[in-house]
Each structure stands twice: as C-alpha cells, then as structure tokens.
Amino acid sequence: MAIIEKYSMSFTTTGLLRKETIVVATLFLELQDWSNIRQRVMDENCLQMKALNSRRRIFTEIKARLECLNPAEIRIVCSDCQQDIDIVLWLALCRRYHFIGDFAKEVIREKYLSMQRHIDIADYAIFLERKSEFHPEIQKLTDSTRDRLRQMLFHFMRHCNLINRENNIQTMFISSAIEELFKNGSSAEIAYFPIPQNMVKI
Questions:
Q1: Cα–Cα distance measured from residue 148 to residue 136, given in angstroms and rounded to the nearest whole number
Q2: How far apart are CA 78 and CA 27, in angstroms?
Q3: From its phi and psi, is residue 48 left (phi > 0), alpha (psi between -120 and 50) or beta?
Q4: What average pLDDT does the segment 145-163 reach?
Q5: Is the pTM of this model over 0.85?
Q6: Residue 3 in this model has a pLDDT that exceeds 80
Q7: I need a surface site. Which of 77, 152, 162, 180 has the fewest CB within 10 A?
Q8: Mean pLDDT highest for which of 53-57, 74-78, 171-175, 183-187?
Q9: What is the dihedral of CA 181, 187, 193, 198, to 10 degrees?
Q10: How far apart are CA 126 and CA 132, in angstroms?
Q11: What is the mean predicted confidence (pLDDT) over 156-164?
C-alpha cells in the first residue's frame, strides 16, 4: 500500500509575499548561498520589518518556497513579466504545499477544462471532505483553521491571478519562457494551471 504524504498546512500564517520573495530571489541570484542571504536579510532588514522574529519567520517561509524552484525559475521571479512571475509563484506554492497543488489539479484545472469557471466555498468544502478520507491531519483541524486555510488559498489564487474578484477562473497565458520551463521540467505540472490543453506544446 502506497504511503500518502502528510499535508503541510503552515501557509496560514503568511500571504503571497510577492515583493519580499522578489527581494530574496534577487539576493539568491547574487550570492548563491542561503546562509549569506539570511545574514544580509537580517543585518540590513531587506524585508523592511521592524521585528527580528518577523524577519526570521518570513525569510524562512520564502526560502522554503524558493528552494522548490530551479535557477531558471528563480530568474523569472526577478524578471519584469508580471504574468510569468505569477505563474512561478503559484508553481512554488503548489510544490511546497501539496494541499494547494492537489486543489489546483483537482478543482481549478478540472473545473476550467469542463467550462465551469466559478469557484466557491462549496468547492473547497467538497475538496476538503474528500481529502480528509486519506489525510487524517485534516480531520483534526478546527473549524477556524479550516476557514483560515480557505481564506489563504483564495488569497493566493486571487493574487496570482488564477481567479478574479468574483472567484471566476481566469485563463493564464503562457509565454515562451514559461513554455521552456515546462519542456525542461515536469510537463505534468501544467495541471496546476487554468491553461487550454493545446496552449503548451510539450
């Protein structure tokens, strides 16, 4: 019997951190060493946070997300293309948090391909109930934590432009740079995105 990996739910304490992630990604391309990057962030307050504990916590989260990306993907985070940045930030979240990745594949992608473009609380509740059969950690969540997970998940989707303010799924268009990422990486990860099946040629 296959062992099912336990979901990590620690994404409830931070947002997308777009600006902060770009700062840390830029330092990574410059220094290529996480201990030196951490020292710079702490000493120079690169994240512009007064509390040292906040700097540590946010840096740790950003580092964990960026460690899910390869150098080419990190370079895109530091690019000028907003849409490409959105795609890579979402990709990092899906890799870092398999709960988010599964929601992307099983809810966003499936609804998009079946021309059901609206996502609501019921979709989240059904997904959570289905996953709780295989993930006992979900069964242990309080109602407030379940609500917080939903709020953050929709926050991520909205701020990565997968959905609009009305929670309608938006098509994500693929640039040549992103297409190269899929060609050189895992084509299965296309399933994280609301992309027409014929848009990416792998």
A1: 18
A2: 10
A3: left
A4: 96
A5: yes
A6: no
A7: 180
A8: 74-78
A9: 100
A10: 10
A11: 97
| pLDDT of res. 138 | 94
pLDDT of residue 1: 42
**Which two structure tokens, joined as six digits, stand for 161?**
């432009």
Closest C-alpha to 42, from 50, 32, 34, 52: 52
- DSSP characters over the chain: -PPPPPPP-GGGG----HHHHHHHHHHHHHH--HHHHHHHHHHHTTT--SSHHHHHHHHHHHHHHHTTS-HHHHHHHTSS-HHHHHHHHHHHHHHH-HHHHHHIIIIIIHHHHTT--B--HHHHHHHHHHHHTT-HHHHT--HHHHHHHHHHHHHHHHHTTSB-TT-BB-PPPPPHHHHHHHHHS-GGGGGGS---TTTS--
DSSP string, 32-58: --HHHHHHHHHHHTTT--SSHHHHHHH
CB atoms within 10 A of CB 22: 16
Q: What is the mean pLDDT of residues 130-138?
A: 93
Rounded distance, CA 107 to CA 86, Å?
Answer: 19
> Which amino acid appears at position 105 of this protein?
K
